[in-house]
Design a protein that fits this description.
The complex is a heterodimer of chains A (about 170) and B (about 500). With about 170 residues, chain A is α+β, with helices and mostly antiparallel strands. Chain A has helices spanning about 5-25, 60-65, and strands at about 30, 35-45, 55, 75, 80-90, 90-100, 110-120, 120-130, 140-145, 150-160, 165. Chain A has 2 domains: about 1-30; about 35-50 and about 80-165, Immunoglobulin-like, CATH 2.60.40. Chain B contains 16 helices and 9 strands. The longest helix of chain B is centred in the first third of the chain and has 31 residues, at about 45-75. By secondary structure, chain B is an alpha/beta fold. Chain B folds into 2 domains: about 5-210 and about 220-255, Cytochrome Bc1 Complex, Chain C (Up-down Bundle), CATH 1.20.810.10; about 265-495, no CATH class. A 4-stranded parallel beta sheet of chain B has the order 7-6-8-9, sandwiched between helices. In chain B, a hairpin with an 8-residue loop joins strand 3 and strand 4. Classes of the chains: A alpha+beta (about 170), B alpha/beta (about 500). Chains A and B meet through helix 1, strand 1, strand 2 and strand 10 of A and helix 3, helix 5, helix 7, strand 1 and helix 8 of B.
Chain lengths: ~170, ~500
């Protein structure tokens, strides 16, 4: 084969590779979120009350303990589940018991949930029970919000900051 | 399809050099990362911008060559038996290449980075190993800290370095590994990358904004083809599939194990410890150690059966693989028990028996070469070997000087694509007199032909055989040669 054809063939081969690499390095575009929608992202980690209340140790019991292990209370590790509810425009869209993490259920309860909502104005209520009460909630926040396309509203929880945080 | 491993190294070095340059200008802060990359891309486009593009496109090409390299070795059944080690060590390298690339996309902190970061962390959060979901780091704009970028840049640098260390292990059972592509190929590939970087530079997507959900993202489909699946399929499915895939990939050399021929065996009685087998072994399966018998030679070869692929190249390199030996048993210093040099001579003589005419051709065919079914005739004899490198050059001399044929053709895999890595290269060097044992000068070169075509080259082989047959010198020329040989032999006797 004459050299010119060989070189032309090689040039064409490399050009095809260049086009292939250049194109697929960022095309075709992937639509990962639908148009006209927004998102609520509920995510937090919070430790609920202990399953068994701490018992105050007597002075005698404390004295019996090794010096480096003396403490005022004796607490079991296990925690109760968190109970969380998310209500959108009066309709419960998320209702879950969040079991405490850890091998002995002694860690925080966690949630990470994405909820897609249509754009527009919505009323969001979020509630959390983290104690052993049998009914009602320990924390509750209601907000009316205007959602724009592709907007992401994060709902976090920090007990120190007073409860739910809308970001 | 050739030099894929070497091209992989070439891309690795381009990525390293361009990455070091880009790192000089990169700011690892949440707000500054994007701005620093924009500066490189638009303000200093002539250097940092090109470096960024080289970094991106060389990474994409690295994925392509690594995947083809892997598929090719699998398709050619070069992942089992003694080759399991290279295969298994290649698996983590492949995973690390993806991990390094994905962490690199993260650093740009544009919409794609945001998408990659969230999908990746959500996927890892499906494993019950984190105290708190790591995806919470991307909950809202104020949740993200610059320290996360420090961690990512650390990973982006550390992972390729670990991969390089594993690559070193990957090559441990390969002697004389080719880690640099031929110069022409390297220049062409680099020119391709430069052209791509100049005419279609890598740009960032809009800056990341955790208050928004990225709608449309331009994915790098070489690194992120599975990300849409990670989002849509349940975590148990994606993790299950991923783990199963990796386990199968690692276990595949034993599913089922290769029924490999027995490894080469050393016969110390006939070995002078010259070390040619050691030099020529493509898989580092031979070691030279102190002599264990009472003979005067210093060293002896020892074959590691776990590394030996039974290609027979060592037997082809052994100077005692001399078919002319008739008085004593033909037993080379090193040989394959399942395909001995003595049996090769027997096959050669048998194949020559039916040949007639003045254009008789003896074809020595590598087991991975063209399919020679139906090629044998009364003018063409065929002898099959494990690898063409198994053929001692003395056999060519033997066939021609003993008038077993009028020409000898050596066939095998595609050139530079030898199934036993170095069989063709050593054969070419031996024929050219550049490597011991070399073809003796008395052999008329016009009567020796090579044809490298691989297993699918049967059609071309027919044409090549005809051309070779038509071009064979007249018998007179050979008679002269034979006379000359007789003189040489007589002289040799007298010298002795």
């Amino acid at each position: 084969m004459p050299d010119i054809f060989r070189y032309a063939g090689q040039f064409l081969f490399f050009a095809i590779i260049a086009v292939f690499v250049g194109y697929f390095s960022n095309q075709p575009v992937y639509r990962q979120f639908p148009d006209g929608m927004a998102q609520i992202k509920l995510g937090f980690a919070h430790g609920a009350s202990r399953k068994v209340d701490c018992r105050k140790l007597t002075a005698k019991e404390i004295a019996k303990l090794p010096a480096n292990q003396r403490r005022p209370n004796n607490c079991t590790r296990e925690r109760i589940p968190l109970y969380i509810q998310l209500i959108l425009d009066g309709k419960v869209i998320y209702d879950e018991l969040l079991v405490a993490t850890g091998l002995f259920n002694d860690g925080p309860g966690q949630v990470y949930k994405k909820i897609t909502v249509p754009v527009g104005t919505h009323t969001i209520t979020v509630r959390l029970r983290d104690t052993k009460r049998s009914s009602g909630f320990d924390y509750e926040t209601t907000r009316q919000m205007v959602f724009e396309p592709n907007q992401n509203i994060a709902i976090d929880f920090k007990a120190d900051a007073g409860g739910f945080l809308f970001r | 399809m050739l030099n894929l491993g070497a091209l992989g190294f070439f891309f690795y070095w381009i990525i390293t050099v361009s990455g070091i340059y880009v790192y000089i200008f990169f700011d690892t802060g949440v707000t500054n990362a994007y701005a620093s990359i924009e500066y490189m891309t638009h303000e200093q486009w002539y250097l940092a911008g090109i470096m960024r593009s080289l970094h991106r496109y060389a990474s994409d090409l690295l994925v392509i060559v690594v995947m083809i390299h892997m598929l090719r070795e699998f398709a050619r059944d070069r992942y089992r038996g003694a080759r399991w080690f290279s295969w298994v060590t290649g698996v983590p390298v492949m995973v690390m290449i993806f991990a390094a690339g994905i962490s690199g996309y993260w650093l740009v902190w544009d919409m794609l980075a945001q998408y990659v970061a969230i999908v990746s962390t959500e996927w890892f959060d499906l494993l019950p190993i984190f105290g708190e979901p790591i995806a919470r780091n991307f909950l809202s704009p104020d949740a993200l800290e610059s320290r996360f970028f420090t961690l990512m840049i650390f990973m982006h640098i550390a992972i390729p370095l670990i991969a390089l260390a594993i690559l070193w292990m990957h090559l441990q059972r390969v002697s004389k590994p080719v880690i640099n592509p031929p110069r022409g190929l390297a220049i062409s590939v680099f020119a391709l990358l430069m052209a791509l970087s100049l005419f279609y530079p890598a740009y960032s997507q809009p800056p990341a904004d955790l208050a928004k959900v990225p709608g449309n993202v331009g994915l790098d489909w070489f690194y992120l083809p599975l990300y849409p699946l990670l989002e849509t399929l349940p975590g148990s499915v994606t993790w299950g599939m991923g783990i199963c895939f990796l386990v199968i990939l690692i276990a595949i050399p034993w599913l089922p194990p290769l029924k490999q021929a027995r490894p080469a065996v050393v016969d110390l009685e006939n070995c002078n410890g010259c070390g040619r087998c050691f030099d020529d072994c493509p898989y580092d399966a031979i070691d030279m150690v102190g002599r264990s018998d009472s003979r005067v030679f210093e060293r002896e070869p020892v074959v590691d059966p776990n590394k030996c692929v039974a290609c027979g190249i060592c037997a082809g390199a052994c100077p005692t693989s001399m078919p002319f030996r008739k008085m004593s048993k033909l037993s080379p210093g090193i040989d394959l028990p399942d395909s001995t040099i003595a049996s090769l001579r027997d096959q050669t003589e048998l194949a020559a028996r039916g040949l007639v005419g003045s254009r008789r051709i003896m074809v020595f065919n590598c087991g991975h070469g063209p399919d020679l079914t139906g090629i044998s005739s009364n003018t063409v004899g065929v002898v099959s070997l494990v690898c063409i490198g198994q053929l001692p050059p003395a056999f060519i001399d033997y066939v021609l000087s003993r008038d077993l044929a009028d020409g000898v053709m050596l066939t095998g895999c595609l050139e530079n694509s030898c199934d036993s890595r170095l069989g063709i290269k050593w054969t070419i060097d031996r024929l050219a007199g550049q490597r011991d044992p070399h073809l003796r000068g008395r052999v008329e070169r016009a009567r020796v032909e090579t044809f490298w075509a691989g297993s699918t080259g049967k059609a071309q082989l027919g044409a090549a055989l005809k051309k070779f047959s038509d071009g064979l010198p007249a018998a007179a020329s050979r008679s002269n040669s034979k006379t000359e040989q007789t003189h040489t032999a007589s002289k040799g006797k007298m010298d002795a």
